[in-house]
Automatic annotation (TrEMBL):
InterPro entries: HAD-like_hydrolase_sf, HAD-like_sf, HAD-SF_hydro_IA, HAD_sf, PGP-like_dom2, Phosphonoacetald_hydro. Binds 1 Mg(2+) ion per subunit. The lineage of its organism: Bacteria, Pseudomonadati, Pseudomonadota, Gammaproteobacteria, Oceanospirillales. It catalyses: phosphonoacetaldehyde + H2O = acetaldehyde + phosphate + H(+). The keyword Hydrolase applies. Homodimer. Its EC number is 3.11.1.1. Its cofactor is Mg(2+). CDD domains: HAD_PHN (cd02586). NCBIfam families: HAD-SF-IA-v3, phosphonatase. Mg(2+) binds at residues 15, 17, 189. It is an enzyme of class 3 (hydrolase). This is Phosphonoacetaldehyde hydrolase. Keywords: Hydrolase, Magnesium, Metal-binding, Schiff base.
Amino acid sequence: MHYQSPQCLQAVICDWAGTLVDFGSFAPTQIFVEAFAELGVAISLEEARGPMGMGKWDHIHTLCNQPEIAERFLQAVGHLPTDTDVTALYERFMPLQIAKIADHSAVIPGALDTLTWLREQGLKIGSCSGYPAVVMEKVVALAADNGLKVDHVVATDEVPNGRPHPAQALANVIALGISDVAACIKVDDTTPGILEGRCAGMWTVALTCSGNALGLSYDQYQALSDRERHAAHERVAAQFAPSKPHYSIATIAELPSVVDDINARLQRGERP
């Protein structure tokens, strides 16, 4: 038997918040602020957004390791944060997140049309998230109520290592029966999610304007001029550059042209 590079794409693996639903990725970030506030520790929305894309325990752990936040924690609680404190914050975060996930569950404009188009091309649609399974169950149900369905979902606590490790993306490959990782695209709005796709050997597409990095609501984004939108795209694309995404686009609505381009590259014998 001889190896033959794939000639066309077989699957697209999408993130959820900031990619398919929740324009601006507000659901997780706001809840981090509230969970810390319950201990008397103030963190800003911008600080909460920093580690976005990681599993939520790892996200909280990363926040607690930031010197400025650790100092505020010390002043409020009386000691520097430990792993036990991280777990306690995580346990505060989870019920808040589950209770409020519906407040930020709207499907991102263009996502439904894009998923329909992908299926018309014969592509399977996988997905993964920094949310644990108990939250993803509600996210998926709310999305289905709004007409959005995928073929497979992998939550961060369903694999040994979350992002930026490739485990969630590869779990989709196995479940969907994909023959080659080079026939997959990973679409994400965070650096850990882009690195996840890169480490899995996939084509990667960074979303610059619908997710965590820009952090605007859809209405705020729509209020920008064309020039302002272009500048925002360029600014966030530069932030993503070290993770080396193959493509950077504003939102998932622009994905079809990327799929066509990657298929052409595969037919020329190129790989991610």
